[in-house]
Amino acid sequence: MSAAWWGRESLDPLVPDPLEPPQLATPGRAAVRAALAARIAAFTPEWRRHTPGDAGDALLGLHGELAEPLLERLNRMPEKAFREYLRAAGIAAVPARPARATLSFTVADAAPGSALIAPGFQVSAAAADGSGARVVFETERALYAAPGKIAATFAQDGKRFFAMQLGGADPAASNLVFGAAPRPGAALLIGLSGASAPAPNITFMVHLTARGGPPPVIAHGGMAAGGVVAQPIVGWSFFDGGRFEPAEVIRDESRGLLQSGLVELRCPRTWRTGIPAGVTAPKPLRWLRLQLVAGAFAAPPALAFIELNAVTASAARTVRGEVLDYVPDSDGRRMRVTQRPVLPGSLQLTVDEGAIGAAAVGAQPWLEIAGLDASGPDERVFELDEVTGELQFGDGMHGMQLPRGMRHVVAQRYQVATGAAGAVAAGQITSLMSSVPFVTKVGNALPASGGHDAMSIPEASRLGPQRLRARNRAVTVADYELESFAAQGADVTRAHGVGGTHAGLNNARVPGTVSVFLLGPRAVATPPYPSQASLDAVASHLSSKVAPAGVEVVAAAPHFHEVSVRATLAVAIHADFGEVLRATLRELDGYFDPLAGGGDGRGWPFGGVIKYAALVRHLIAHVPGLVALSTLNLTVDGEALGACSDFTPQPHSLLWPLPHELRVVEKELP
C-alpha cells in the first residue's frame, strides 16, 4: 500500500474511560468558592459590592480553604466503603510473604554419624534491602545431614566411565549424566566421603541446568504424568559388598531427573566403602547410583550440580510462649501479638480456661479460622489479622466467648514473616544461629526466591472481589491463577491457568491436570521468565493447599513469540519527527509488553491475537503528531507476514518485542 489509508480523522473521539469511583462532590477550593458566590443573590441580596479584598471575599476564600480537605475525604468514601465491605467479608490485604531458599549443610568428615537438623533450625543473612539488618531463615522440615561431602561423580555408559564435576555451584553448567542419547543401563555414580555411614536417611538437591530460555516445568500432586504418557523409569541403588542394592526412595521431587528437586533415600543398614568395578577413584568411598532402567527422555537430562544435605528454608522467625494482652476498648474480645506480620497458619494458641464446676479444664488449644459467623457458641475459635496481629474472639453466639483472666492466653508459637528483605542473593546465607554438633557450614548456591512486602491497598482492592470468590480454594481455573500470588517463596507478576492441559508434555490433553503459566519480575533484555524456585513454590502451594485431592498442578513459563514492526509513519509537517519516532517505538514496545501491554495496560493477553487494525488505531490514538500509517508489516519469529495480516500465536503464549524498523514521511493534517 503506497498511500495512507487510515488516519487520525477516522478515530472515534468518544473512547470510554476506565471505570473510576464516583465523585460525590466537586473537589477544590475554587469550586467551593464558585458555588457559594452563586448563592449570594438568593441568600444575601443586600451584599451588592463584593469586591476582591473585602471581608466577605476573605470569608469566601477561608470557607473554600477549610472545605477543600473535607470534600477530598468525602470523595474517598466510596473507595473506603468498598474496602470495608471486603473487610466485613473476611477479605484483607495479603500480608508480607517470606522468601524461600534451598540450604546445603556441611558436616565434618569425622562426625560419628548423620547430624539431625530439626525443623526451625535458624540461619541468617544480611537483608537484601541494604538496611544492614539480619534476616533469619528457618528450615521447613527435618534433615539428617550426612557426614562428609560429594567427593567424586562418574557417568557410566555401558562399560565406560567418565568423571564429572557435579559438586560445584554453577547453575549454567551442563553435564549430560546419561549421555547425549540416553539408553537403558546408563547411570550416574556419586561417591561420598565421611568416616561414618549416613543414617537413617540421606538427602540431595538435584539442580538441572539453567538455560537461557524458560526454566524446566515443575509438577506437583496428582498422579504422575507417566500414568498417561510414557516416561523414563530411573532407579536408585547403594553400593555395598561389591554390588549395588536397590534403595528405598522416600521422596523424589525431581521426578526422575525431569525437573530440579529434592531426593531423599532410606539408607541401608550397612553401607561400606568401596570402589565399583570400572571406577578410577583414588580411595574407597560410599557410592550411590542413579540408573536409567527403562524408557527414554524427550531430551537428555543435563545437570548443573548436586547438593548434599539440602533442605528448604523460609525467611520467617519463630516466636514462642508469648503472653497476649487485650486491645484497649475491645470489650475483652480482641488481643494482639507483639510481632507482625504473622505468617498465615503459623499461630498456635492456648487459653487457660480455669475450672468449670469441679473439673479443672486448664490450657486448651484454640483454632484459627477465616470467619466467626459460621461458628457455634461452643467452638474454641478465633480470627487473625496477619497484618495488624490482632485476634478476634467469639461473642458467645458465633464462637465461644473468651474466658476472663490475666495472662491466660498464650501464643505457643507463631512465625513473623520477612518480606522483600529476604530475597537475598546466592552465597549470602552463611551464618549459623542454631547449633548442632559437627555441622560446620551452611550456604545457598542459588538466590532466595520470592519475598514480598504486604500488598498495597489499591492492589488489594483490585483483587478483593476475586479473592472473595476463591476463598483460598480452587474451584475454577481462575482460582488457580489468583492463588498463585499467595505462594510463599514465589516471585510472580502474572499467572494464567489452563485446565486439562499438561505444560510439560507439549500442552497435551491430560485429565486431572491444571497448568499454570507464570511470569516473573521484569528483566533487562530478556522475557520475564519466572525462576525455577518460583515454579516449584507455586506448584507445591497450589497442589497441597488449594487444589482438590488428586489434581496435578503443573507450573511453567509461557512461550514467547518475538515480534517486530516495519512501518512508514505519516507525520504532521510541523511535528517533531524525532519525538514522533521515539514515541512510536515506546508505544510499540509497550503495546506488546507481557507485563504492562495490551489494550488495558495489564499485560498482553495469553494467546492474544495481534489484530492489525487495532494496532494501527492504537498507535494513531496514542502518538501525538502521527497522522497515519502508510505501511505496517509484522515480523514474527523471524518470518515476515503479509500486509494487513493478523497474527494468531500459539495457545497460552505471549509476545516479546524486538527492535523495530520505522520510516517517517510528511503529511498535511486533514
From TrEMBL:
It comes from the Bacteria. This is Baseplate assembly protein.
